[in-house]
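Q: Give me a protein?
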Amino acid sequence: MKVTFRYQDGTSETFEGSLGDTLMDVALDNGVQGILAQCGGGCTCCTCHCWVDDGWFDRLNPLRAEEDELLTYAWGRRTNSRLSCQIRLNEDLDGLSVEVPENQG
């Protein structure tokens, strides 16, 4: 499953993830700059914040209350903000593209 991370300098990187991985797992496994994931995926911080590209956001599982609350502390929260630890890869997300903020929570 391909996932593309776009950076604030205009560059991007595409990596392979496995079905069931979280987006955060793919980022950490490949050293994606800007995804810190300080809590290791426990949904207790907002340092894996990303902006999901148009066309992909509606394919994600709905935002849960705890994620929504954490996103209030995210730098540059937008309507398309999500925590990458809460995005689990499935067949509908092959080709997912997200933007990485220049700062984390």
